[in-house]
Amino acid sequence: MTVAPGLPEGYEFSADTDRVDVERVHRWLSTDAYWATGRPLEQHRRAMAGSLNFGMYDTAGGKQVAYARVVTDQALFAWLADVYVDPSVRGRGVGTAMVGAIREHLRPYGIRRVLLATHDAHGVYEKLGFAALERPDQWMALHYEPAK
């Protein structure tokens, strides 16, 4: 648990995977996140198992109010994924604080690059130092069709 400067009052940040409310997070992502709609619970559990997992929690009752995970080799590269803030606390700085805390959590690893993809939250991430790819022509992606 981390209650640190920069976190909104009444919230705490945690990097403890055991504290994540897996079913709640899965419900958020699979029903309300454009990038994960319909994601099966077992697939979500596998994604969590291969990632560092983070949460923001209400200090009054301990309820999880936000989630994110990072896929990383813990040396050179990281991918920030599944950033989600419960609609009931959006606009209070919870998501920005969580991503800032994740950035600081990763700093000691010496990672040179943290990537993410977003459809509509560029301004949030720019506040934390993220920028558009300088050379997008150097990046490629391999896409698989969903398993049937």
Structure overview:
The chain is of the alpha+beta class. It has a single domain (11-138), classed as Gcn5-related N-acetyltransferase (GNAT) (Aminopeptidase, 3-Layer(aba) Sandwich). It contains 4 helices and 5 strands. The chain is globular and about 45 Å long. The model has no long low-confidence stretch (mean pLDDT 93).
Number of helices: 4
Give the rounded overall mean pLDDT: 93
Reported by name, the CATH topology is Aminopeptidase
**What is the correct CATH architecture?**
3-Layer(aba) Sandwich
Number of strands: 5
CATH class: Alpha Beta
**How helix-rich are the residues, as a percent range?**
25-40%
Kindly report the name of the CATH homologous superfamily.
Gcn5-related N-acetyltransferase (GNAT)
The low-pLDDT segments are none
Structural class: alpha+beta
Sheet bearing the most strands, described?
5 strands, mixed
* Helix-strand string: EHHEEEHEH
Features:
148 residues; alpha+beta; Aminopeptidase; five-stranded mixed beta sheet; 5 strands; 26% helix
